């Protein structure tokens, strides 16, 4: 039964993985998990970066997300895509982390070094005015709206967003339309 | 007017970052099992002091109560019944608190965002449940000092009326608070004040977030 479940995990992994990197099927749970994380590291980084601007806090958050993913890995439901599972766990962890951090001091990091890092220096100095404005706008949003905008910008379908957020597709559509309108207004104000 | 493509802006922003991100697989693999356990233990540790204080309080109550039962005399009837009720209510509150902690540790984060956030938030607000239950002990604090030896036989009507009114008012207040201190009544200012006062900033934030989730789920409000 366990073997069958692992085979399903590996099948699912192959179907979901970022094909830029070849994934070698493995029956070891830790190895499979590491491959899933490797294939979706960009997604985890983007979520952490959207909610945490402070690099140290972001490092803590990435660690917390990966730990929660690990704890939840045994109960992964293969009826969902890996990306849906990661978005749910990562966003739930992030929103809780974000809310806790309003009232607490920085906790000791679980890991001594950064799990996700850049191969080279981040080139954020070249951001144009529009990107700065977009980030500023996202930063001002409430945590749930922020999750919604992030999923929209990642080009998830309305159905996927509704599944991840736990609201109706109509609600997703209404909220995204409203947020886009506000964004457009803000951008037009800058240009005038 | 030229329309800004937000999705394209987002993609461009992460294009370079996406290519340069690296995972420290060795570190992650080495530490994963051990650190996941440590993280869970730290959550439990933070609640241990509160539980220890509650247990000490319950032991003291239990000792007083068992002494009264072992050295039983009809003069202690009011005391035994009152302390017994206070003891049971507090045991129930502690059990409820521990149950919520266990429940908190077992929440599966892979559920949809609004559902899981609502569950987590309700857990933070579970203090409301503990508070409303503990208010039920209020009337018994107005009866534990009475004794069959002198009440009501040796007391004048004035005192009997005063005692009855006192206990009755405590019963009324306790039942009213028990009925009203619910999450459904968070729109009432005094309910928010009582819960915030009992749980501090954490509960105030949880109350705010409760409203935020409700608004988010509501299709008409944005």
Summarize this structure as a short list of keywords or feature phrases.
heterodimer, A: 192 residues, mainly alpha, B: 222 residues, 74% helix, 1% strand, elongated
Verbal overview:
Chain A has 192 residues and is an all-alpha fold. Chain A has one domain (4-9, 28-191). Chain A has helices at 2-16, 29-39, 41-51, 55-72, 82-100, 129-140, 143-153, 158-165, 169-191; one strand spanning 116-118. In chain A, helix 3 packs across helix 4, helix 7 crosses helix 9 and helix 8 packs across helix 9 (169-191). Helix content of chain B is 74%, strand content 1%. Chain B has helices spanning 6-20, 25-70, 77-106, 113-124, 127-134, 157-180, 189-217, and one strand at residues 21-23. Chains A and B meet through helix 2, helix 3, helix 4, helix 5 and strand 1 of A and helix 1, strand 1, helix 2, helix 4 and helix 7 of B. Strand 1 (116-118) of chain A pairs antiparallel with strand 1 (21-23) of chain B.
Roughly how much helix do the residues of chain B carry, as a percent range?
over 70%
Number of domains of chain A: 1
How much of the polypeptide of chain B forms β-strand, as a percent range?
Answer: under 5%
The helix count of chain A comes to 9
Beta-strand percent range of chain A: under 5%
Largest interface: A-B, 72 and 51 residues
Inertia-based shape of chain A: globular
The chain-level structural class of chain A is mainly alpha
How are the SSEs placed, and which strands pair?
The complex is a heterodimer of chains A (192) and B (222).
Chain A: H1 2-16, H2 29-39, H3 41-51, H4 55-72, H5 82-100, E1 116-118, H6 129-140, H7 143-153, H8 158-165, H9 169-191
Helix pairs in contact in A: 1-2, 3-4, 3-5, 4-5, 5-8, 7-9, 8-9
Chain B: H1 6-20, E1 21-23, H2 25-70, H3 77-106, H4 113-124, H5 127-134, H6 157-180, H7 189-217
